Amino acid sequence: MAAGVRRRGKVGYLLMVPATLWLLVFFVVPFYSLVATSLFDPSGSDFRGYDMTYHWQNYADVLQAYWRPFLRSIWYAALATLICLVLGYVLAYAIAFKAGRWKNLLLVLVIAPFFTSFLVRTLSWQLILSDHGWVVRSLQFVHLLGPEDRLLATPAAIVAGLAYNFLPFMVLPLFASIDKIDPRLVEASSDLYANPFVGFFKVTWPLSLPGVVSGTLLTFIPAAGDYINAEFLGSTNQRVIGNVIQGQFVDANNAPVAASLSVLLMLIIVAMVLVYVRRAGTEELL
Amino acid sequence: MADLSAAPQPEPPARRSTLSRRGLLKGGGALAVGGLSVAALRLPFFEVAGAQQNPATCKATDLSASAKQMIISNWTGYIDPRRNPKGTFAEFQEKTGIQVTYNDDVNDNAEFYAKVKNQLGTCEPIDRDLIVMTDWMAQRMIDLGWIQPLSKAAVPNLHANLIDSLRDKPWDPDLEYHAPWQSGLTGIAYNAEYVKEVGSFADLITRSDLKGKISLLTEMRDTMGFFLLDVGADPDDFTEAQWYDALDLLKKTVADGQLLKFAGNNYLQQLTNGNVVACEAWSGDVIQAQYDNPKIKFVIPEEGPSLWSDNMLVPNLATHESNAEKWIDYYYEPEVAARLAAWVNYICPVQGAQEAMEKIDPSLVDNQLIFPDPASLKDTWDFMPLDDRQTQQYEGDWTDVTVG
Amino acid sequence: MSLLAENGPQNGPDNAAGTDAGGAASADGLRLAGLTKRYPNGFTAVQGLDLEVPRGSFIALLGPSGCGKTTTLRMVAGLERPTAGTITLAGSDITHAKPHQRPVNTVFQNYALFPHLDIFENVAFGLRRRKVKDVEAQVRDMLDLVELDTQARKRPAQLSGGQQQRVALARALINQPEVLLLDEPLGALDLKLRRSMQLEIKRIQMEVGLTFMHVTHDQEEAMTMADTVAVMNAGVIEQMGAPSELYENPRSTFVANFLGQSNLIEGTVLSRAADVVTVDMHGVQVSVPTARVHTDGDRGWVGIRPEKVLIGGEGEALDAPGNTIPGGVVTDVSFVGVSTLYQVRMPWGQELAVFSQNTGRTRMFRTGERVELSWRPEYAFLLDIHQSAAAGVEQGDDD
Ligand SMILES: Nc1ncnc2c1ncn2[C@@H]1O[C@H](COP(=O)(O)OP(=O)(O)OP(=O)(O)O)[C@@H](O)[C@H]1O
Ligand SMILES: [Mg+2]
């Protein structure tokens, strides 16, 4: 008995080896190097090299210099996540409860955009929202947009692009959650005097919360770090933190700044996720 | 283990051997860990050494004599068709017997720099014999000591035929390290379908009908040169105060929402589809775009043209330098240069190519954007060379605005 | 020979008990009239169903699987839209009312407890929706009633099947609906738990005095719990009445076979008197009280329950007022303990079932022995010859 337990324990550890190695090689080491880089002396350069001076001031400096793009990133991502949640919920709900035999086809259609590259999809949005494209022209024609107004280069375009690109990340977990809900529970709620609206918020919604939480996380996290949408759909006044990091790494060759921005972005997202998961009350989710 | 019954016996042999084996294992583990941290010794302190190298010492033996081959990295679409048996490329291989591996893998100076930084910065080979970089990047690499000097005797055509306006670059006045491949003008492109001519850079950044619909280049020296001119400074020689004046003007332009974006490479696509109606642009790109869309026009701004070039450089540890020099010399034959220019449409850096063009394509002989009138290039400006600290400071200022 | 009864005892009033409870009751009871449900796929699950349930009564809907019981309940609850017909509750037409607007609650076949809410909140759900005051106290009382007061803060998944069932009951009951619908709530429970839950539900119903409509296909459950049993078959109600009456005087071969077991013997009507009908049954004359005759035809099925059939040796005097039917041969004997089940082949080739109480007063018969059968005329009934003699056999036997 004891030997059996011990052997099982050993096998367990063995099974953990690949995952541990993977984490070590692809997460711990790069992250360590990133944090280390973020503490380099900022006066370094490629010519002279970088000295490790534990320059924590880097963080304060970049936060002060780039709090705007930070806020923009979070704000755009939050808006896009909200839009995704509303659209995605309706979509997932319809697919789960109303689609019948079209269910699988609709699911495939949700994933279909993934078969083309992210870049191409975003560039297509640039074309769609373009100043002389039919969308802008139609909106101008019905006077929803003034003759000088545009869609491109506005926060709305970026948020729309983000929402479009990350919608499947929202729909799939939502669908998985909603599809599991027993429709008889909804019937039970209406039997117990809940009108459809109340029934939704008291039964369907809480039961779909696991999907809502994972969907919003899966949408928000990549959206907050995304810069492709801001790059192609925004203007210089809508740059997000991803643009800054990319510019600092590639164009300015300023590794310490770029690294501290990256670490900060990561910390901010992790903190927000923790608060969110706490607030969403995972223990309420069964 | 079944050793419980044997416990009263003092140290049964089996047990001892297990122990010692385990001890050995432990020792081995410690050794292995030690080895690992030796390999990664730089991790805990993690300093990054300077990337400065000495080309005199960081240099490989030239194998050109025995290995008739070379590897080159160039920008995309920057040579006449290589498959064409009558093209310059095939002709070079045929004449010299040198097998050329040609990569069109340069899309962006900064990006290429990031790609080779780790190797060249630590004196390791990048497996290329020739790379093509724009002035400012060529200057940085030369300053970093990453570039091998060219043997003057091996490239007589270069020294004889380079056009005057590209000579005497402050960062390599004697053509010791670089040989221009093609050059061009930085100016303004606009889409005549949507706007009237944009004649000056000052117009570009202030005209209200262009608001939100212009793009500027991400190359600091190109763009800031014009801003310096617009604040009355000389890009060839400006003070720090003037730099900050120019930077303030840039900031104001951005804050006013005049820009759609700072664009690196594909800025002309936006100009074609009308999201951008005017932009800072490179002449060669514009000429190529004009074939598809004649409404796109190129203007040399009133502030004065800026002439730049993309330059062939031999990186450290290249093993076929002599072959690379043969390549350079070949492309400085006026007739070859003319054939190349007829295809790529950039300003041809080779004297005598204009005459040679008569036989190749007479319609291009008088094209100002391939063979500009020497008079029009008289007051071209250059961006003054920056030292390391200035580079870092100004690049930092610049990125703060362009990315923030 | 004849089995003639002078004056057979009649079991209760005429079997239309449910219907004649009408009048006064219909004003505040539940009335289904011509209720029909045709599903989109064209299948008619319920066909012109008429039903009157007096307020405060306990009615059981009994029938084989797929006969439309759940569909009927769902229409009453408002979860299914009737194709035709009306539903009237306490005098008002609720045919098209939304489920949440009906004073009707359901204990679902699978309980359908809310997994994300604890027991207390499950039970409080209906009260909170109606913004009732004093939720706390009411829920406590209700949990006391179903003996779950200690489980209030657990989640449904942490309860046993029987406890969950009681939660489902409490959740519906607490709203004091006009009608409580129970859809086979005991189906998943083991026999012992099921019996005790049956008693509990019955006790609660008597305590709160609400109208209960209980669906089951367990005839024993229906008969022990309900005041009125309605037997459903293929979307219609075959017969409805008090359990004993349904059993003693079935009106169709389906009911006769589905509820318990019956011997059905073909016969020809000889004469119809005021209170008795005489039937020739393969040469034997038997009489059936008029109240137990359910056919106008010349021929019919003479029905008799196996436990009502008396068995005796050839020539033995049977303790029965009627004459005997001779010529039977025992083909099978199964000893059940309290009784013995005989299969007896009659001269016309049919096998009849006979339950004989093992009182010790009669001896046991062996296979192959010749016997005579007899029954009291007042226990026989006469059914329509056009109905299948096998209707309801398989389904009824299982439970
Ligand atoms: N949504 C539906 N669409 C089509 N036919 C249905 C639907 N729901 C039920 N039916 C059919 O209607 C008939 C009656 O179904 P119902 O659920 O009322 O039976 P039931 O009497 O409750 O049976 P059980 O005792 O097995 O629960 C069945 O034959 C069933 O197949
Ligand atoms: Mg059912």
Name its key features.
heterotrimer; A: mainly alpha; MetI-like fold; disordered N terminus; B: 404 residues; D-Maltodextrin-Binding Protein, domain 2; 2 domains; ten-stranded mixed β-sheet; 15 helices; 11 strands; globular; binds adenosine-5'-triphosphate; binds magnesium ion
Going by CATH, the homologous superfamily of chain A would be MetI-like
Number of DSSP helical runs of chain C: 11
Described by the principal axes of the CA atoms, the overall outline of chain C is: elongated
Which residue ranges of chain C are poorly predicted, with pLDDT under 50 across at least 5 consecutive positions? Answer: 1-26
Largest sheet of chain A: none
Structural class of the secondary elements of chain A?
mainly alpha
User: Globular, elongated, flat, extended or rod-shaped: what is the shape of chain A?
Assistant: globular
The overall number of domains of chain A is 1
- Helix count of chain A equals 11
**CATH architectural label of chain A:** Orthogonal Bundle
Largest interface: A-B, 46 and 43 residues
Oligomeric form: heterotrimer
CATH topology of chain A: MetI-like fold
The strand count of chain A comes to 1
Protein name (chain B): Spermidine/putrescine ABC transporter substrate-binding protein
Organism (chain B): Nocardioides acrostichi
GO molecular function, one term (chain B): polyamine binding
GO cellular component, one term (chain B): periplasmic space
